[in-house]
Amino acid sequence: MAAMQSSELIKREIIRRINTRVWRPGQMIPGELELAREFGCARSTVNRAMQELARRGLLNRKRKAGTRVALNPVRRATLEVPVIREQIENAGAHYRHQLISRTRTAVPAGFRAAWHTGSRRKMLHMEAIHYADDTPFIYENRWINVAAVPAILEQTFNAISANEWLVQNAPFTHGALTLKACGADAISSQRLGIAGGAAIMLVERTTWTDDVLITRVLLHHRPEHCIESVL
Amino acid sequence: MAAMQSSELIKREIIRRINTRVWRPGQMIPGELELAREFGCARSTVNRAMQELARRGLLNRKRKAGTRVALNPVRRATLEVPVIREQIENAGAHYRHQLISRTRTAVPAGFRAAWHTGSRRKMLHMEAIHYADDTPFIYENRWINVAAVPAILEQTFNAISANEWLVQNAPFTHGALTLKACGADAISSQRLGIAGGAAIMLVERTTWTDDVLITRVLLHHRPEHCIESVL
DNA sequence: AAGTGGTCTAGACCACTCC
DNA sequence: GAGTGGTCTAGACCACTTA
C-alpha cells in the first residue's frame, strides 16, 4: 500500500475496503499500530480517522477487543433545526409571526411528570402563528420555565418571536425532539386554517440546561410540510 | 482559572462561558494558544475541544479570523435510522415481516424525474409488511435498481427483509430522507389495518452510490408512531 | 505579511476488557 | 496480565484569510 498523507485519505480507504468487502461486516480489522505502519503515518492519525468512522456508525471499537466493521451500520440522518424565521425565509417566503396568547399558568397535568421543576405556577404559556407569505405555516404552542429564563417576562414578542429570542438568549445543553403525524384537532385546524382531522406533522421540542427545563414547544405544521434530511 | 485536565472539561467550560454570556453571540473568543495557556494544556487539546463545538454549530471558526460564538446556532438533531428489525426488537416486540408482492416493473412516472437511470424495465418493485408482535407496524413500498444490485434477483426475502439485505449488501455513499404526515390512502390503510384517512408518518428514503440509484422506499408507519431524536 | 486554525508526528500514560 | 483504544503533550509545518 502506498503511503498516504492524511486521515481523510485513510478514512476513504477504510470505507473502500468495507464497501468492497475486503473487510466484511462483523469482521475484526487491523489495529491502529498496524494500520499506521501500513499507511506510513502516526498512530494518532489512524486513530482520528477510525474515531470519525466509529462516530458515523461504520465501525465498532472496544478497548482490547479491537475494531470491527459494524454489522448493521446504524445510519444517522442529520436534521438541521433552524430558527423558524430562517426556515421560512430560506424557502423564499416572507416571514411574519403573530402572538395569540400569553399567560402565566400551571403546568398541564400531562406534562408535569416530564417536567423536572417542582413549582406549578411558574410557567409562561404562549401561542403564536408563524406565517409564510400570509399563509399560516406553523401553529406554535409553547411553555417556558420562567424560573430558568426570568428575562422572558419583559418580552412582548412583537419584534422577535419567542422561538428566536430563546435561541439567542437561552442556550441549552441538551434537548429532545419528537416527530409525530397526527390529525389536526379543533384548535390547530382553526389556527392553521385547514380542515379538521387533516394529517399534520407535529414536532415537539424540549430543551434543558443542566437538567433545568427551559422550554417545551409543540409545532403544528401545515399538512403539506415535509422535513428533509441527508443520510 | 484552575488547570483543567481534558478536552471534555474544556468543552464544558467554553459552553458555560457562552451560556453565562461571558462570551456573547457573535463575539470573538481567545485563540487556541491563549486558551491552552489559561487551561494549562497543549494547544491540540484546546483544538480538539473547539473543533467539536464548531461541528455542533456553537462556534464558527476561520483561519486567521479566529473563533466566534455562533449567532443563531443551527442545532442539528441526529436521527438514528436503524434496520427495521432492530427498531422493532429494541422496542421489545417480536419482529416478523411478510412479502406481499415482488415484480419487475417500469418506474412509475412520478419517480422517473428523480431517477438517474434511463432504463425503464430494470426496476424491482416490492411491497412488504413489518410486524411488531403480529401488529402491522410498517407498510413498505420499495423500488430497487436491479442494475445496481443484480444479486437482488436471487433473494426471496423470506429469511431476511429487503431492508436488511440491502443494508448489508448494498452500501451507499449518500442518501436522502423525507418525513411527511399524510392521511392513509386505501392501500396503506388496508395493509396497516387502520381507518382510511388516519394520520400516518410517511418516511421516504432514497440511496445512491456515486450517483447510481440503489433503492427508493416509502415506509408507511402506524398512526401512533413517534420518531425521537436528541438535539 | 502575519496571525489564526488544521493537521500531523513521536512519544507517553492511562483505561478498559478480554483471556 | 496483556493488548487494545482513548487521550494528552510538545513541537512542527502548512493553509487559509484577513489586514
Overview of the structural elements:
The structure is a homodimer of 231-residue chains. Chain A is of the alpha+beta class. In chain A, a hairpin with a 3-residue loop joins strand 2 and strand 3. The first copy, chain A, is built from seven helices and eleven strands. The model of chain A has no long low-confidence stretch (mean pLDDT 87). In chain A, helix 2 crosses helix 3. Chain A is elongated. The first copy, chain A, starts with 6 loop residues before the first helix and ends with a strand. Chains A and B meet through strand 4, helix 6, strand 8, strand 9 and strand 11 of A and helix 1, strand 4, helix 6, strand 8 and strand 9 of B. Strand 4 of chain A pairs antiparallel with strand 4 of chain B. The structure holds a DNA duplex (19 and 19 nucleotides).
Report the radius of gyration of chain A as a whole number of Å. Answer: 24 Å
Please outline the major beta sheet of chain A: 6 strands, antiparallel
Distance between the termini of chain A: 30 Å
Query: Order of SSEs of chain A, N→C?
Result: HEHHEEEHEHEEHEHEEE
The quaternary state of the protein chains shown equals: homodimer
Number of strands of chain A: 11
Q: What are the low-pLDDT stretches of chain A, counting only 5+ consecutive residues below 50?
A: none
Give the helix level of chain A as a range of percent.
25-40%
Strand content of chain A: 35-45%
As laid out across the biggest beta sheet of chain A, the strand order is: 5-6-7-10-9-8
Structural class, judged by helices and strands of chain A?
A: alpha+beta
